[in-house]
Amino acid sequence: MRICAAIAAVVALTTACGGEPVAAPPATTTTTTVVPPAPAELDQRAKAAIAPPGAFDALGGQVKQSTPATDDEPGADGEVVTTLCETSEMSVDGTSVARARVWTGRVNLFQRVHAMSDRTAAALVGAVQTRLAGCAKNRGAAETKAVAKPEGVDDFYAHCEANPDPELVPWSCHALMGRGTLITVVVASGQTKAAAEAQLTSVAPIFAQSFVKA
Questions:
Q1: How many angstroms separate the CA atoms of 8 and 14, rounded?
Q2: Architecture of 59-212 per CATH?
Q3: What are phi and psi of 198, to 5 degrees?
Q4: Keywords of this protein's UniProt record, alphabetized (predicted)?
Q5: pLDDT by residue, tens only, the chain of 214 residues
Q6: Closest Cα to residue 94, out of 82, 81, 85?
Q7: DSSP character at residue 57
């Protein structure tokens, strides 16, 4: 009997001496709780991803405005990612922290970065493509293939549209770049579509340098 008991203890699924099967121990499950990043953590990522103020010094660009005004101030929550066809706003639909910057001088550039807690950039870039397809006919907006996806960027989509408002620069070209739960929209403006495309083509890799490291 001692030999039989020892065997049963070592091999859980063996047969006991009396012919009765020995029950296996109950299965155990492990539950992993994913804690979303805190706003301060998202803000640090957005701060690292946005192009620095002097990024376009060599091109004659100067910072006109940063939002928030300084790195010490917290980024904004719930900002619009981009506006399509003048009036169609695309938002994160979740927790995010955003930072924005405008450069003028010999360039005409805008950037907004969103660090998101749970929505992927790929999903948002796809939603922008779908929304643009629905409004482009009436607004002169269209995808542009002239701007290449910068190295290190996972998700990318670029389009250009005319600005009918006489107070605005006539043409704007927009590039969305995504990486995980980080997304940025970059806008370059010009007097013609070709000028806006050319400017966006030249600056997209510069914007990507900070973005892909964040």
A1: 6
A2: 3-Layer(aba) Sandwich (3.40)
A3: -65, -40
A4: Signal
A5: 444 444 344 444 344 445 555 566 666 666 666 677 888 999 999 999 999 999 999 999 999 999 999 999 999 887 788 887 777 787 787 789 999 999 999 999 999 999 999 889 999 899 888 888 777 665 667 888 889 999 999 999 999 988 888 888 999 999 999 999 999 999 999 999 999 999 999 999 999 999 999 9
A6: 81
A7: G
How far is the C-alpha of 27 from the C-alpha of 80, rounded, in Å? 47
Give me the phi and psi of 208, to 5 degrees please.
Answer: -70, -25
Contact 135, 84 (CB under 8 A): yes
Q: Which of left, alpha, beta for 155 (phi over 0: left; psi -120 to 50: alpha)?
A: beta
pTM of the complete model: 0.80
For helices 39-49 and 193-211, the axis angle rounded to 10 degrees is 120
What span, in angstroms and rounded, lies between the C-alpha atoms of 209 and 213? 7
Q: Per-domain residue ranges for the chain?
A: 59-212
* 112 CB-near residues (< 8 Å, 6+ apart): 79, 81, 82, 98, 99, 100, 184, 185
Query: What is the phi/psi pair of residue 18, to 5°?
Result: -80, 5
Computed on alpha carbons and rounded to an integer, the radius of gyration of the chain in Å comes to 27
